Amino acid sequence: MAFHPQNSQRSVMAEINMIPFIDVMLVLLIIFIIAAPLLTHAVKVDLPRADSVPASMKPDTIQLGIKADGVLLWNGEAITETEMAARMRTAAALTPPPELHIQADAATPYEALARVMASASRLGLEKIGFVSRPENAAQP
Question: What local confidence, expressed as pLDDT, does residue 90 receive?
């Protein structure tokens, strides 16, 4: 507490007493230092060793090309829409089902693309991706 000469006017003390705040913070710091090692729940278990490689079953990919004139290409082979539906049905039955990568010409009508995507989804191929060429890539 500061002693000031007695004036007729009492001034209000505008300083914050930081000592209680520092005391509380030091107590909290000590509590956290003590409690931190107790929060790690480690149980030592002697696990057996095995020489094996985890099996990673990566699904196959199907490259489906759609040309501007409506020609469908299944992994580079020209097919009809009925053949495409039969192949999609067969591919969807595989475990895990393959991913369908659609490569469409820039001038391909949206209707043809929507029809292929709808039939793929209806027949069970749910992982569908679009393949595009980066802007700075050369034209084939």
Answer: 93
Entry field: residues in the chain = 140
Distance CA 58, CA 94 (A): 12
- From CA 121, how far away is CA 131, in angstroms rounded? 18
Is residue 16 scored above 70 in pLDDT? yes
Residues whose CB is less than 8 angstroms from the CB of residue 13 and which lie 6 or more positions away in sequence, other chains included: 2
- Residue 109 sits at φ, ψ, to 5 deg, of -65, 145
Q: How far apart are CA 115 and CA 8, in angstroms?
A: 93
Rounded-to-10 torsion of CA 91, 97, 103, 109: 70
Domains with residue ranges and CATH for the chain: 61-130 (3.30.420.270)
**CB of 87 within 8 A of CB of 79?**
yes
| 68-101 per-position pLDDT tens digit | 998 999 999 999 999 999 999 999 998 888 999 9
The runs of H, that is alpha helices, within 17-68 are 19-35
Residue 29, classed as helix, strand or coil, is helix
